Amino acid sequence: MDEIEALSSIYGEDWCVVDEDEKIYCIKINDCLDQPKWTLCLQVILPPGYPTAEPPIYQLNAPWLRGQDYMELANSLEEIYVQNLGESILYLWVEKIRDVLIEKAQSSDPEPDIKKTSEEVDEDDGADFLLDYQPIQEDPIKMLNYITSESQEGDEERPSIHHGDPITDRRSTFQAHLAPVVTPRQVKRVLEKLYENKKIASATHNIYAYRIYCEDKQTFLQDCEDDGETAAGGRLLHLMQILNVHNVLVVVSRWYGGILLGPDRFKHINNCARNVLVEYNYVPSVEESSKQAGKSKKIRKDNKKRTEH
Hints:
By secondary structure, this protein is an alpha+beta fold. It has two domains: 2-106, Ubiquitin Conjugating Enzyme, CATH 3.10.110.10; 140-149 and 156-286, Impact, N-terminal domain (Ribosomal Protein S5, domain 2, 2-Layer Sandwich), CATH 3.30.230.30. The chain contains nine helices and ten strands. The chain has helices at residues 2-11, 67-83, 90-106, 140-148, 184-195, 198-201, 232-243, 264-279, 286-308; strands at 15-19, 24-30, 39-45, 57-61, 162-163, 167-169, 172-180, 205-214, 219-225, 248-255. Strands 5, 6, 7, 8, 9 and 10 form a six-stranded antiparallel sheet that branches. Strands 1-2-3-4 form a four-stranded antiparallel sheet. The longest helix is centred in the last third of the chain and has 23 residues, at 286-308. It is found in: Cytoplasm.
């Protein structure tokens, strides 16, 4: 609470309380120019274990924040968290973002054009989701080539691939595929193996995201791919960040059935992904989560009673 009070005083009107009970806050950050060119909105949820045991859950909202820009900024925020474990970090996050915006304002780079590539175009695609991601490469396999090309290691064993149950809605079908991965080379090999399947290769979109925990650097190597379904990869990666899953690749194939689904398509993509993560024990099921939450609530109540007595 001391941190929140300090941030509210420092940033004034740019600091916004979205939900005080749930500890959801939002801050508008700009490049400090009289007429800001680069702006970004950082929304954070402070979990019960913050700052001693849990990091903030965050979303980044900026129409220009895509591709390399997004990944570099997200990795910087995670590095700040790792370097300051157990400490309040929101001020450090805000000022790091501000430094990035100032650097962009001082550069001659124009704001990038944002184009949609999905066959479905929604007016509210960016409105209902704050973390909007655009792939760097058109070919999902090419995206990983530059990461693995410098590696002199021999071929690593290809991880086993698991397939989730499909979801069908208005003739469109969605199916998730999952593989445990610990290196970018393994990600590449899994993708290559999946695309050998003619049915998967013929999917309208093969959206994927992966998160690999680097023990030596205590940080994450992560990326995602829309494969033409604008913002879907970013949404999938964000789901995996919220669930805090490690060392896993999730691919969601979509076969378009000719009927526009609107925002429902993102719901099906994330539901497929979550279902397969639950099935293979990367996250607890809803029932297990409810039991754990109930136990935690009971412990807090018991501790409160003892304190009052």
